[in-house]
Each structure stands twice: as C-alpha cells, then as structure tokens.
Amino acid sequence: MLSRRSFMKYILFFFIILNFNISASECDVTHSEGVNKLTICDIKGKKVNFLDITGSMNDLAYYHGKFLAKDILSGVIASVAKRRDDSFKALAKKERNQFKAIYKCVMNKYKKSVDPKFLSELSYLAKGVRDAGYNLSGREVIEATLMIEMSGFVDSLNLEMEEDRRGTNWRLIKSCGLHIASASIKNIFSTIGGGFKKMKKGCTGFSASSDFTVDGSHLHGRNFDTGFMGVFEKYPVVINHRNSEGVNYMGMSSAGLHYPGGISGMNEYGISISTHELRTKNYKIKYKDRVGIVAPYAANLILSKAKSLDEAITIAKKFGYFGAWSFLVSDSKSGESASIEISGDIVRVAKRSSGSMGQTNHFLHRDTARYNFEYSLNKSLESRARLSLVNDELAQSRGQIDINWGINLLSGHTDYLVGQRSFGRTVSKVYTSMTHIMDTGRNIFWFSLGESYPTNLSTFIGLEVSFDQEENFFRFKGSERNTSFDNSSWKKSLEYFTNAYFVYEGDGDLKSRLTQSYELLKKASDLAKADNIVEYPYEMMRARVGLKIMSEFPNLISSLELDSVFETLLSEVGNLHNFEVAQVYESYARYNDLLNRREQASKFFAKAVSELESLREEFNNHFYFNKQYWTNYWFIKHRYSKYDNRVEQLHFATVE
Fold first, then answer.
1. What is the rounded average pLDDT for all residues in the chain?
2. Crossing angle for the helix pair 93-113 and 185-197, to the nearest 10 degrees
3. What is the rounded end-to-end Cα distance, in angstroms, of the chain?
4. Contact 320, 428 (CB under 8 A)
5. Pairing verdict, β 46-55 and 236-243
6. pLDDT tens by residue, 573-597
7. What are phi and psi of 414, to 5 degrees?
8. Residues 326 and 393 in one domain
9. Is 81 a member of any domain?
10. CA–CA gap between residue 362 and residue 299 (Å, rounded)
11. Strand, helix or coil at 293?
C-alpha cells in the first residue's frame, strides 16, 4: 500500500505527464504539517519550490523558514549579508568603523519606524529555520530585509555628498551623532556605494486589458532585474497563501523572501502587482507612530488585502516609505491599471487608465520627479527608452496581444534609440533574474524557468491557479518560449556576455576576474561577428575591462588586442547614439593616456566633450551627466592616469 507521500508523488507525476508537455518532470511533496506543504518539482533539470500555506502572515513566514531552511541559508539573505560585509571590507579601518556607526544608526531608526508585527514576522521566519535544525537569528533576517531600503539611502547620500558635503555632514550629525562626521565621509560613501549598487533592482512592466488582447485575457507582465541575479532564480519559490487575515493570493519569490507580492503576484479578486525600484533624494530613515514600511512588504500587503484598484491605492497611501519605488497595480475586473509612485513620504498616482500601461524606473509625477535621480546618463536614457518601446508596442499591437506577445516583449533585444542590440537600453537586461506574466482574469501565472541564460529566453512555465482548491493550488498549463533568435551564433553570444558579468561581479582574485571576464567578452564578440553583427555593448565592455587590466596588470597589455577593439568601436560611431559616441572617444582617450600618448588623448577627450555638448541642454540638471562632461573637459589639459582608472566603476547593465 502506498504511503500518503508516495501517493501524492505518484498523483502529481501522473498529472504532469497528462497535462504538461515537458518530459522528465517530477514533483514530490517533501514537507507537510497539517494543511501546509512544500512540493518540489524538477522541470528540465531545474528545481522549483511550490509552497502552499494556510493561515496568518506569521504562519507563512514560519513555514517558509522551516520548509525551505537549507535554501534560505544559501539564498538572498546570505547574499545580502555578504555584500554588506564586502562593502565594509573595502573601507580602511577608521572609515569602516565610521560607516558601521552610520549603518547601526540607520538600521535602528528603520526598526523603530516599522510595525513591530512586521519585525515579529521576520523573526518567525528565522524561528522556522532554527526549528528545521539550522542556525539563523531574527536579527539577520530583519537586517537583510531592511538592506534593500538602505541601498537607496547610500546612493542618495553619495549624491548629496558630491553636491554639498558640508550640508550632508550636518544632516548626518543631526540624525546620528557628531562622532561619525569627518572630512573623509565623502570617500566613505563613494567607496561603499559600489557594493550597495549591486543590490539595486531595475524592472520593466506592462499591463494589457481585455480590450488589447486577442483572446479577452487581462495580462500583467514584468521582468525582475536585480543585482542578485544568480541568487533569486537559483532558489525559486511559487507561493500560495490561503490568507486568514485577508484575501487569498499567490506569486513568485525566492527562498528567504516570504512575501511574493514584493516581486509580483495576483489575488483571487483579479488584483495583480509588480514592484519597480527607483532613486530619490527625498529618502527618509525615521517615522513616528510606526507608520514606516518596507516597500516590497507594502506591495504584498496590497495583494493580500485589496479587492479593487481603489482599495489598492488607499492601502498604499496609508504608510510612510524610506526610498523610491513604483507599484504597477492592475485590476482585471475593471480593466484598469495604475502606477503608484513613492518617493520617501510622498505617494502619488502617476498614471491611471483603462487599456494598457508600461512601467520602468523613473518618476513621471511632478511631485516625485523633482527628487528623482539616476546614477548615470545612460541609466536615465535606458529607463526612458524602455518605457517608450513598451508603450509603442502596446499601442501598435492592440487586439493582437497574448501570452506569446508578452514573452517576446519582455525577452526582446531592441534598443528604442538605435535598433537591435544585445543589452544596454533593451527591455531584456543582463541581470534579468525572473520574468512573470499574469493572466489575472483566468488565474494563470507564467514564469521563466531560468534553466539557461538569459533567463527570459529560457522556457516559460504556465500554472493554472485555483485559490479555493483544497488539495493542490495549481496545475501545469503548458510551456512557451521565445524562439526568435534560435539557431544563431548571436543568441549564444548573449550567454557569454551574461557570464562575463557574473565573473566580473563575482568572488575571486582581481586578476582572475578581470582576465576571465575579458575572455568571455571576446567570445561573445566573436560569436556575434560570426552572424555579421558588431555588438557595441560587447566591444565597449571589452574596452572598459581591458583598461582595468592595463592599470592593474600592465604586463598583460600585449595579450588584449585593444588596438583592434578600439578600431572596431571607432568604425561604428556613425551607428551610435551621441552619448555612446562620447563613451567611445572618452575610452579611447584614456587608452592613449595610459600608453603615454598625451596629444592623441587630449584630442579624443575634446571630441568626447563635443559629443556631450549636444546633450547638455536636455540634461543640464543631471548631476552625473554634468560631472562626466566636466571631467572630460579637465582631461583635455591633464593626464588621465592608472590611478584615475582604478576608481572607475563599470556597469554591465547600462554598458558603461
């Protein structure tokens, strides 16, 4: 006679064979207590967790911790802690102690600002892990959770230090005490900022009502772009919460993040939500009366309570926020969507409409936009380019939109400003960790499996969700995939570029990281050229990584073939955006200075300034653009050295 566990495994496997066209898929109920259970499915060699929990948020947190304990210890919580600690290590001892004082001050203010029930909930997750036989403290979970807000604080403070060090020092003294302020505080935030930027999120989203779709479905899709790619998609968790404190909902998360609405999800009333991170100078670190909330948790609260779009907006406006976010919320009952923008204590509905809507990573409402900033001009350009492309595609495809359209859009490689591209200002990013598309009228949830990179060119799995089904909350609906780029060397090049990003941002000694990343970029370039395509992102990042190698390991210069790389880049300037042309000239000028060819370097720094000049009127209030402009202007007369190059931060996501 079969045991209950063996019987469930047999039934699930039989069900998959009948209803799912991917072979070698197998599901097993690995943990269960009462009605709560964890099912693990092996799909194309990728493990996917399905967590089905009945009860309160404390119950959800506890069983998330208990059933997924092993994955949690290797997942996002551990990764956040490591990046924080690595950022500390990058500082000299005195500066490290100063920043630790700032960190402790801000963390304490966050903890005193949020609802104690939220902190208790996070402690329940840690308790679940401990009850499974592992070690994890509530403090570790709480601080890892709050770090997502602190990354925005560090970015904002870094900008403020550049603009007004004295004034920013005074605000820090007022907030956290005199003992942390010093002349070196600007350097602290400049150094620490690189590590904290790795915690950022990007994300492109869209919604399309039944008036726009071919089959009457209501779709809400999003790319989850995150500096934690390599972690989030490694431990995926589909969560179904039969909520005793509100409405039933489901969504997709990763081991260690028990509230799936913090990424994307849908509920039984046709409400769906996705979160998108931005940057603001109107950050907050303290609220009275415990009204503060971590934005992704607020998104989950909306999902777990709201029965209409109006209710979702009302809930969002109840709280005080720390950083900069937008929530794309959609209601399949009315066909409406809204973009709720959050800038510290400012909450505004930037857009609300029936039909369709795009969402990226910059503010649109005048009250939030006044505090908006991006860390580079290309970040500003790429967010606006993605939004323009999504909105144009929605308008042009009215009446033709379906799940395949959504998959193709979110896995697309078109730069709105220049045409087909591998990465950069494209909807598909080098750090797209997950892609979700929700058909909220029919309760169907699609997600990228991520069995290969880029993740959004991998297999998409469809789940038909039953919020009121007692035994199993889902059944497999099928699988889909973007096949547009199949059988091309260019498609293979995308994976090499992604791996170059992984290596550059990863662990290991500097020499290995730089040289391995460079070799992977060269392979990406060669594969693209095999299809007669010159990819600017590959060549530019080869140039930038190559310059790093020149500065750190000059004995390797002859092996880099950088003359050939720059020859390719210079031959492409007629096909590039003005800002990219400026980057080519700037990089080539640096290369010449590092080779002691000052006259040639000065000439190309001047050419870079000339290209940037054409953008000054449009971006005259963009701090980082102006900084780049005047830095290039300075180097027309002054030599760029290896020490200047060593402090340059490279961004694979925006290709700079």
1. 93
2. 70
3. 63
4. no
5. parallel
6. 999 999 999 999 999 999 999 999 9
7. -115, 125
8. yes
9. no
10. 18
11. strand
Please tell me which residue, 244 or 165, carries the higher pLDDT value. Answer: 244
Same domain for 102 and 120? yes
- Beta-bridge mates of residue 49: 40, 237
Compute the C-alpha angle 210/212/217, nearest 5°. 35
| pLDDT surpasses 80 at 96 | yes
543 and 574 in a single domain? The answer is yes
Q: Within this chain, do residues 294 and 359 fall inside the same structural domain, yes or no?
A: yes
- Give the residue from 288, 281, 325 showing the smallest Cα distance to 167: 281
Percentage of the chain surpassing pLDDT 90?
84
- Alpha-carbon dihedral sign for residues 493, 394, 653, 233: negative
Say yes or no: 47 and 97 in one domain. no
CATH number at residue 257: 3.60.60.10
CB atoms inside a 10 Å sphere around CB 298: 25
43 touches 461 (CB < 8 A): yes
Structure pTM?
Answer: 0.94
* Domain-ending residue, one of 480, 497, 515: 480
CA 545 to chain centre: 23
Indicate if 420 and 324 belong to the same structural domain: yes
Q: Within a domain: residue 231?
A: yes
Residues 126 and 58 in one domain: no
Structural contact between residues 369 and 225, judged by C-beta atoms closer than 8 angstroms: no
Closest-CA residue to 488 (of 456, 532, 519, 458) = 532
* Residue from 45, 83, 39, 87 nearest 63 by CA: 39
* CB-based burial, 429-442: b 16+ in 10 Å, e otherwise: bbbbbbbbbbbbbb
Asked if residue 416 belongs to a domain, the reply is yes
Count of structural domains, the chain: 3
pLDDT tens readout for residues 490-538: 999 999 999 999 999 999 999 999 999 999 999 999 999 999 999 999 9
Domain carrying residue 633: 489-646
Q: Which residues contact 219 (CB under 8 A, 6 or more apart)?
A: 206, 207, 208, 213, 401, 402, 403, 406, 437, 438, 439, 440
**Residue 655 domain-assigned?**
no
* DSSP code, position 392: H
pLDDT the model gives residue 411: 98
Question: In the prediction, which pLDDT does 184 show?
Answer: 66
pLDDT of residue 23: 40
Q: Residue 379 is encoded by which pair of tokens? A: 């970040």
How many C-alpha atoms does 181 have within 13 Å on its Cβ side?
15
Residue range 1-42, pLDDT digits in tens: 434 344 334 334 433 333 445 444 589 999 999 999 999 999
309 and 385 in a single domain? The answer is yes
Domain boundary residue, one of 182, 197, 212: 197
Distances (CA, A) of 554 to 136, 546, 551, 594, 641: 45, 10, 6, 10, 13
CA atoms of 582 and 611, how far apart (whole Å): 5
- For residue 502 the two structure tokens come to 């992984």
Angle between helices 76-89 and 138-163 (to 10 degrees): 50
What does the buried/exposed string (b/e) look like for 554-589 if buried means 16 or more CB atoms within 10 Å of the residue's CB?
Answer: eeeeeebebeebbebbeebbeebbebbbbbbbbbbb
Poorest-pLDDT segment among 163-177, 366-380, 457-471, 569-583: 163-177
